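Our consortium's second objective concerns turning raw sequence data into structural hypotheses that experimental partners can test. To show how far this objective has progressed, the report includes one record in full. It was chosen at random from the queue rather than selected for favorable results. The single chain below, 316 residues long, was entered without modification.
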Amino acid sequence: MDEKFIIDTDPGVDDTAAIFWLQKRYPDSILAMTTVFGNIEVERATSNTQILLSELGRTDVPVYEGCAGPLVGQPMFAKHVHGDTGFGGFVSDIETNVDVQKEAGAVAILDTLSRHGEGEVSILALGPLTNLAVAYRLSPETFRRVRRVIYMGGAVTTWGNAAPRASANMANDPDAAAVVVESGVPLVQVGLDVCRRFVVPEAGMDQVNEKGGRMGEILFQMINGTYASYDRPKGRHPSNVAGVYFNDAPCVGFVLYPELFDVAHVRVRIERHSTLTRGETVADMDGLWGEEPNVRVLLNVDGDALAEAFVRDISA
């Protein structure tokens, strides 16, 4: 695989699933990890990243701590979903051997892009887009060296999960999301439109636990005691299916299995000012604005096939 990745993350149970999936399939593609507030405080996101890399034996992957809050306002954490530590029911006893680098996350993004060829490095953005917005503001020219940004967030044909019309990552920093969406770089939106259709059933998680080695054990422990687990209300899923929702994992799923997704290239803007819909990803599906498309929005996915692929890959 010639595409390399910076993973910008706030782990997080679903971040962990995404990181493990990419590590399982293309470990050499992971160049660096930057952390951001979101599911938990940025300090905890950083220590969680150190734990995950230590568990994976990836002491070669540098970690950089990023932004502790949004460009405007205060952060909103999701401990009601991921637990106080961000790791749900998983408690690590490993002694971490991964150091945190001195550079700030946004600066590290730019440095990593500048050290590689233009269009060689992509960013998997699994949390609020604050680090990316700061990087762009620091050096638009360097930021535009990115191959593509695949970000988890947004809701075009469905409802939000942090506000009626906004997903958590967008609601946590709409101003940063607006900067990134208008940056001119190739963008892929992996929103709730597809995440709600990606559900790993109980039998699949049993297989992951039994055959997935340390990754499987960690994921299985994480989902116990979290809102991501089996007791999630069935009626909230379009197919009336109960199971585990790893919302960040479809970002990696799209990298690995793009043929399973329906994609629309449209103009997207981020609502920043409304008291009702701040953070909404507004997609001009009919070209009513008369503007060039700027985001490839994932609108649908064969969720069963993607879940089967996840279970198969992690269990391999």
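The partners drew two points from this record. The chain has a mean pLDDT of 94. The chain has 13 helices and nine strands. Both points have been shared with the crystallography group to help prioritize constructs.
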